[in-house]
Amino acid sequence: MSTSALTITDLTVRLGDLQILRGVDLEVPFGEVHALMGPNGSGKSTLCHALMGKPGYEAAGSARVDGAELLGLPVDERARLGLFEGFQYPVEVPGVALRELLDEMAAVGGSEISDRGAASAARLDMERFLDRPVNAGLSGGEKKRSEMLQLGALAPRVAILDEIDSGLDIDAVRDVAEAVEGMRGPDLGVLVITHYSRILRYLTVDRVHVMVAGRIVASGSSELAEDLEASGYDALVGEHDAGSEAVVSESFLDGL
Amino acid sequence: MPSPAEEDWRYVAVPGSLSNLQIPRSPGADPTRSTYESLLGETTGRADIVDGHVSGVAGSNIAQLAESDVSWYEPAAPVDRFAAAASAFGGSGVVVSADAGEIVSQPLFVSIEAATPGVVSIPRLLVVGAEASAVDVVVEQRSPDGFESLVLPDVEVVAGRAARVSVTVVQNWGDQTTAVGRHRLRADGGASVGFAEAGLGARFSRLHLTVDLVGRGADARISGTYFGDADQTLDYRYFMNHLGPNTTSEMFLKGAVAGAARSVFTGLIRVDPDGQGTNAHQTNRNLVLSDSAEAHSVPNLEILANDVRCGHGSAVGPLDEEQRYYLMSRGLPAPRADRLQVLGFFEESLQRFPNQKLEPMLRAAAMAKYDRVAS
């Protein structure tokens, strides 16, 4: 039996006293690109942080990358098992050049990371950013391209790209979408988290999942995204408003 | 002795006592080789000062300070016993000078050592850049670990009209040395003064720095990097005086404390009524790496003109959790992620040092301290 890139089974996540994810099942096979959509506060970013192991997120259930269980492992071990989080807000690391970060990544994960990083930098036209501090002073689009460069260097099994199109102008959205298309391959599963269907005009997705109030409430082909664009999330939210209290609370937390 | 009850000495207590220390009549040892000097490659000139006595001067643009080298500086009333001692007993030192229009292409190196236990030494350095000249000076201060000594380094820098003068001090005193330095910089119209200090050593090191931007358009770039561990105290009192119109300044200091170390930065930007058009900024960020370490950061502004741009930023805190998470998400184990964060923290200030040839060794020295406290 072949394993999927990402297999999430009955995942629940608490942040402090808040139950944010209430039993998520999701599978992304190798070679596929899936989209995870949903209204603000539905738990999309929480899923991303909980899978990566961000401190404070208490997860139960199971989340496997290429068959290996992630839950309970430190963040760096999850990364080395092949999970990549593309950050919604890439963190500035003042005084550390992107090249130095790539060197550190290679020192831990192998010299091929350097080679792939150099190739990614060339492909993404990011070479001039290698000697600049990581994410400091970069525009929104440049930060997302820097994330794509690091993705290309690490060559993970699973890439979760959190709000990959937020805050970008339309040209930058197209660039990022092209970069994701360029990554597509038989050894990688991609989960693109997005609030809007805008990026899906430039990105071919194999499947769309909709999260509301901490659960996946619908999964389908890319047409699902088109339906959502026409009707909005309201219809789906109405059916699942049992979790609305948590929805409000999490969006409040996001704003902090 | 000064006490923390005085504003100028708030937060710190000077260890030891002046009374049982002797002023030596001659250098107590031969000069030793500086590893920092070797980084500079070719130098225009160099000098060794041991126990407050000049023991060697070579090259051009540098000479032993003579009685006739009257200080440019209006001798202010000594503010404490250390300043009084320096003005009463100081005298031996070197003068670096550049003539009008002279661009001194290679740096000058001044080695200042305290080699004899139980003495107080008062090394002096005067740097004078005449009109439209350019000169760069690097100073290393050092003493062996394990014996008590008191050093009162006295540095004066004068940049004439449109001159560019920079001084970098590597403070590498031994672990039982107390240093109380007074440095004064003055910039005339259109001149630019640069000053940087890397605070690595000493049990107790205090640096009192005054910058007078006198002429129109004078500029000062002041940077610093410091790292205290064990029971070190690193104490910086920086005063930036915008006396002339359209003067500009930037102060940028970053430091870390570990063990039971303490650091103090008090920075004052003062804009004189004549300092219209001033543009001044000061930044001081501190990383506190242990529960018993402490860092005090006190930026101040005193503005007596009405057309100025002044700002300050100050921070004291532990390593950043978001940076740690981000770097770990790229596969770096926590210790490696933290080390990279610390490296970047210091790099931001080291990149502002006027002489970039020192950067690799300063970076390595700071990280060697971090590696000791992190292990």
Number of strands of chain A: 12
Beta content of chain A comes to: 25-35%
What is the average per-residue confidence, as pLDDT of chain A, rounded to a whole number? 89
Shape annotation of chain B = globular
Structure description:
- The complex is a heterodimer of chains A (256) and B (375).
- Chain A has 256 residues and is an alpha/beta fold.
- Chain A has one domain: 3-Layer(aba) Sandwich (Rossmann fold), CATH 3.40.50.
- Helix content of chain A is 37%, strand content 27%.
- Chain A has helices spanning 44-52, 75-81, 98-109, 112-123, 140-154, 170-183, 223-231, 234-239, 244-254, and strands at residues 6-15, 18-28, 33-37, 57-65, 68-69, 83-86, 93-97, 133-134, 158-161, 189-194, 207-212, 215-220.
- The model of chain A is unreliable at 242-256 (pLDDT under 50).
- In chain B, 52% of the residues are buried.
- Chain B has helices spanning 35-39, 81-89, 321-328, 334-350, 359-374, and strands spanning 45-50, 53-59, 62-64, 93-98, 108-113, 120-121, 124-129, 134-142, 149-151, 154-159, 164-172, 177-187, 192-199, 204-213, 219-228, 233-242, 248-257, 262-271, 279-288, 294-303, 309-317.
- In chain B, helix 3 crosses helix 4 (334-350) and helix 4 (334-350) packs antiparallel against helix 5.
- Chain B has one domain (18-319).
- The radius of gyration of chain B is 20 Å and the shape is globular.
- With 375 residues, chain B is mostly beta strands.
- The chains are: A alpha/beta (256), B mainly beta (375).
